[in-house]
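Quick one - first record:
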Amino acid sequence: MASASLHSLLLKTPNNPTNSYSFKNPITLPSQNVSFITPTRSNKPFSITCATHVQDRSTTTSETQSQDRVFNFAAGPATLPENVLKKAESELYNWRGSGMSVMEMSHRGKEFVSIIEKAESDLRSLLNISSDYYVLFLQGGATTQFAAIPLNLCKMDDSVDFIVTGSWGDKAFKEAQKYCKPTVIWSGKSEKYTKVPSFNYLEQNLNAKYLHICANETIQGVEFKNYPTPINKDAILIADMSSNFCSKPVDVSKFGLIYAGAQKNVGPSGVTIVIIRKDLIGNAQDITPVMLDYKIHADNKSLYNTPPCYGIYMCGLVFEDLLNQGGLKQVEKNNIKKAELLYNAIDSSNGFYRCPVEKSVRSLMNVPFTLEKSELEAEFIKEAAKEKMVQLKGHRSVGGMRASIYNAMPYAGVEKLVALMKDFQARHG
């Protein structure tokens, strides 16, 4: 099966006369070996395209993309690795000689059991998850875990602490109010969620059962680069890692529980992954619905009821692909490279583009930015769509633009976005 090689950026100038631009004078961004071309006034239209050549599929990586696909900057459901999609396509009708699709399998049959067991094994390898933790494949999105966590780990009068660095942390806090006594010990709301607090000055509750963070805020683009420690020696750290899960190495042993919706970095929507220390289960509140009881799912190896079978299969293919790339240390290097390119373009624009997030905690996954001339934002998004770059509109609560550059976003996609940003500034700056 053939695929496209890494895109090299070319800017073409067709012959149809109109009021547009030609290109010359390459400019190289700091810390990058990528040249961009500044436009000068011309009477010819332009388009931004990527040249490709065909290579053997065995050498392809997440850096490559076929010409018939868009660059999808959606926050989730998000882009998936092309080679993973191709493999799923080849196995859709008849999974490995079984005579049926994964979508048709009994979730208790040997075929699907082999799929879910390998997915768990590969995830354990990626994150170096010890046998002290259960790995659960659940449903209901990370939002369901906002209730499941306090129901499983607290009594109604127990105290818990929240650091709120964005919209998802705030939602988790509000849901926890129904099942325990949460306290927001720090909130970035007054500063429009643009930073992470210094951990040294947090006033934690001495009796808090856990400290909850959202490791990466998808909407605001704020990411924890290191993690706080609960002051109560018996408390645990809990993290919603939905939008940076498997984007970099994480020391799982620092956490009592990690949870993540799959639809950002590791699979399609419908799968929620929970990694929980084994000694934390078995004490759910009496009102806990059976489907939210971690012990039920752990005892039944995530097969208590029919799980999201095809989604788990897809996650397994992604885990396998991440291992083939060299693991999460290499994945993190790729993500840093992409994020550097985009943030450098924003910061070197002399204020034409702006990212509101404090530089030290900018997300590698979700890059929000605005235009100095906000009235041009709709035009920018429209032009991007014409160039096959989609889903760049910012969240409705924030506005502006947002480029989600998850693991599966090829470097070429960020190159092409930055080329458009340069050209757009030259015409409207």
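second record:
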Amino acid sequence: MEVTMVPGKGPSFPEPLREERDLERLRDPEVVTSELGYVFQAITLTRQQLAGRVPLIGFAGAPWTLMTYMVEGGSSSTMAQSKRWLYQRPQASHQLLRILTDALVPYLVGQVAAGAQALQLFESHAGHLGPQLFNKFALPYIRDVAKRVKARLQEAGLAPVPMIIFAKDGHFALEELAQAGYEVVGLDWTVAPKKARERVGKSVTLQGNLDPCALYASEEEIGRLVQQMLDDFGPKRYIANLGHGLYPDMDPEHVGAFVDAVHRHSRLLRQN
């Protein structure tokens, strides 16, 4: 499908999927390897330039989230058209989600082959699904991606890499996500760290979850909020991060203050 990046709007699909027959114009998922070769080249160049200073994380959108863009034509506050598909065309929805999964697996494996040292799958629109729809249309494909990527890496003779699943507003499925085959579960800022740890157990690493808008605060306040977050998560099986992405108008100096505060308080935690 044709995708354009519209300033102030984000990804836009000029010809979204409207009818079941529209699936016939989708191309073979295996063309990922050739069509997205530029992504793999960029990853290799970036890995070389990093020269071991920090790890390089590859990523992709999860099947349900990708489906919403393809059906809605872009972002949406309700996902009404996409959810209409789930209720009115469940078989076609599963067909599309399988096609997307088949495309994601070689895409993620290709990123590792190109130099990515970890992979993160973003189910950014999980919150538009309740537990029943999530368990039916999102979770099976999230699980399948992890299982098949790990198998393909092994078949290709590539070393395994940690995989992270982030389902925004998917707090209702924390237990299921913790058992979906990923080493790390990302949390948005609406989830209490201590309660999340109780729910997922001790064998899974948690990532997150400072409210991105906290970066509008003063640098001193950012430091205080980071300290509270790290204290709540504790020093084991935890990756400090924001609870979602940065916004375009955020001050890079405040992003630096966040990173510095994480390093500073992490050292103190380890010492104690």
